[in-house]
Sequence to fold (416 residues):
Amino acid sequence: MPDSEYVVLLLPSILTLFLFFILIKRKRTRFNLPPGNMGWPLIGETIGYLKPYSATSIGEFMQQRISRYGKIYKSNLFGERTVVSADAGLNKFILQNEGRLFECSYPRSIGGILGKWSMLVLVGDMHRDMRTISLNFLSHARLRTHLLREVEKHTLLVLNSWKEDCVFPAQDEAKKFTFNLMATHIMSMDPGHPETEQLKKEYVTFMKGVVSAPLNLPGTAYRKALQSRSTILKFIEGKMEEKIRKMKEGRENLEEDDLLGWVLKHSNLSTEQILDLILSLLFAGHETSSVAIALAIYFLPGCPTAVQQLRVEHLEIARAKKQLGEMELNWEDYKKMEFTQCVINETLRLGNVVRFLHRKALKDVRYKGYDIPCGWKVLPVIAAVHLDSCLFDQPQLFNPWRWQNHIITKHKIPSL
Fold:
């Protein structure tokens, strides 16, 4: 066949490929992406983004990019094309459209260490089911009758362990309190018991690996954490088998038991799913709460007026209870702690226990003229909103009174 005939036969295919590439190019270029810099190949700007900085700031990396590009910018983080948002409106939009336009998308290493059934990495129906099981256990009635009583009990255990004029690390004491509380409610473990202390030791090793570089090499924190994870899961599984055995023997009422018993009683989850759920809740409940408590202890000495107002609020409650001949705190007492709630809110705002979230766009999304393509990672930076001077007057100042009207706007600190 002559060469000219080959060309004629191939021409339609060549034209089709040409048009196909034009369409792809148009699709790629039609997005109006936010400004930004994608950084180095593969690693992008991840190293700079994760550089340590004070919890009461957004860090030099974020500050520089917001100054250069604005509150919404693009980057390459955690090996993925990313839109970073320090914009309060976009952050709210992302969270309000969870499951419709966006979904959780944490790095693969997080799923590797917390487990593929962890609520932190699950999306869709499975995440909803796991969340429902957990929330049903922590019902309003249980919070009022069980949890509040246990919080007071474990608080007194920690306070009574302190010696007069002793010095101790506040964060360690906060971690002791939250771990014991979570271990009690999750698996009915007694504080100070040898098995509780051993589990706590493994958990500390596990936590060091969660926040370390995901290098599964001998001697690394990540490898040690994986080994501790295996030990913790075996321990939880042993508790499961013990509860199931007691249930069959009629010696344990799982209906009113701890979270592990509740899950066994009220769900059809597999053993692997239960293990990951229990581990993820132990992680979530312990870590964030202990950091928040330590931050409150750190912030309060710098604001003596807040300490005095807290003391007055709590002494009034104690005085009223004494007159009634009551000892334990109840739900009505908790509701009277209005300024205490303001202190908690301000601690979470200024301390930024959770600095940013990992999300992924499920569809092409447009916001304020910018496009977020389907499949792109989205990082709502919560800390940037909490420390925004357009939303909070003197955002670096610890000012619990700004929350008294429950309005996020500019507030003035009262005369001291």
User: Anything to note?
Assistant: The chain has 16 helices and seven strands. Strands lie at 72-77, 80-85, 102-104, 359-361, 365-367, 370-372, 377-380.
